[in-house]
Amino acid sequence: MTRIRSIVRGVGSYLPQRVLTNDELAKTVDTSDEWIQQRVGIKERHIAAEGEFTSDLAVAAARAALDNAGLTPDDIDLIIVATTTPDYTFPAAATLVQMKLGMRHGFAFDLQAVCSGFVYAVTTADSHIKNGLARRVLVIGAETFTRLLDWTDRTTCVLFGDGAGAMILEGVELAEDEPERGILASALRSDGQHWDKLYVDGGPSSTGTAGHVHMQGPEVFRHAVGKITDVVYATLEKSGYTVADLDWFVPHQANKRIIDGAGAKLGLPTEKVVTTVDIHANTSAASVPLALSVAVADGRIKPGDLVMLEAMGGGFTWGASLIRW
Ligand code: UT7
């Protein structure tokens, strides 16, 4: 009996050129490089240029992933863009990406799960592949999240950045005696009772404006480590692996203290944890694929490695996905 599995064909990323340091921020809002580094672990973040939209960031990351995979847009059947900051209320940023890539076939849609968006999108792509709806899926996490910030609110404006990361998943048939590879297991969760702990106070149906980010930071922090570790354990349990089998842990990049706390609770050595929050800040749905791209490009993540992706954010939503690279 053959088994269809979603394997990773390539990854890529894009960061806007403009880098905003903590010291620069401290000139306009009552904060300091020392506070931000100590409490969050961020040194700098990238900011999209005027006229540079989420779909532009997504296309640049998609092209990098296609190059990495040795594929062209003709080879892709489905584009999923995980984003909270689409160019327009509609159409989906994914259809704009499809157009900009010159793709006239297949289908494309956006997925909204805030910071967990990429993990949700990878899991959705895996289901589409296993159900025969698509063979090659371009999964993108892309955000111009800084456009949702109130730059006078020091409790949120220091935390976020812009960027995009992409992954190409391909359905392959494994022979009976072939070891498992690709996406091995995933677990997704949400709990809407926490919606107002991290939300944006606008939207087409409520205010008719995009709104600004509001967060009860310590409350989100209080939930983060437990929810992250629960969903990682649930994913491991489904796959039959244990924490000791993991080669790499690629968590959502919101706060270095949350990443360290989750790593310590799981009993993972710090050298197995991929951390980019210092240079990217929290890029919401883009954070996991951006971190993945860094660790693939610098040679840490190699074929055969066991990689755990994890994210948690607004909603609350949270999830994890285990991949044999
Ligand atoms: O991506 C989705 C998931 N998001 C997260 O996981 C974020 C989770 N939350 C966090 O990472 C942290 O709660 C924050 C980084 C947001 C805040 O860190 P904290 O250690 O929880 O600080 P706090 O909110 O308890 O604030 C401590 C102090 C306060 O001053 P007082 O009341 O003690 O005088 C704040 O007003 O730090 C002050 N403060 C700041 N000071 C300088 C808050 N923001 C800043 C700032 N610069 N930017």
Q: What is the CA-based Rg, rounded?
A: 19 Å
Structural domain tally: 2
- Name the ligand types: oxa(dethia)-CoA
Largest sheet, in brief, is: 5 strands, mixed
Pfam families: ACP_syn_III, ACP_syn_III_C
EC number: 2.3.1.180
Subunit structure: Homodimer.
Domain Beta-ketoacyl-[acyl-carrier-protein] synthase III C-terminal: 236-325
Characterization of the model:
With 325 residues, the protein is an alpha/beta fold. The protein has two domains: 2-175, Thiolase/Chalcone synthase (Peroxisomal Thiolase, Chain A, domain 1), CATH 3.40.47; 182-324, Peroxisomal Thiolase, Chain A, domain 1. The protein has ten helices and 13 strands. The strands form four sheets. It has a five-stranded mixed beta sheet, with helices on both faces. A four-stranded mixed beta sheet has the order 8-13-12-11, with helices on both faces. Strands 2-3 form a two-stranded antiparallel sheet. Strand 12 (306-313) and strand 13 form a beta hairpin. It is globular, with a radius of gyration of 19 Å. The protein starts with a strand and ends with a strand. The structure holds oxa(dethia)-CoA. Oxa(dethia)-CoA is lined by residues 31, 35, 39-40, 115, 154-155, 158, 198, 217-218, 220-221, 224, 254-255, 258, 282, 312-313. It catalyses: malonyl-[ACP] + acetyl-CoA + H(+) = 3-oxobutanoyl-[ACP] + CO2 + CoA.
Short description:
By secondary structure, the chain is of the alpha/beta class. It is built from ten helices and 13 strands. The relative contact order is 0.19.
Based on the model shown, name its key terms.
single chain, 325 residues, alpha/beta, Peroxisomal Thiolase, Chain A, domain 1, five-stranded mixed beta sheet, 31% helix, globular, acyltransferase
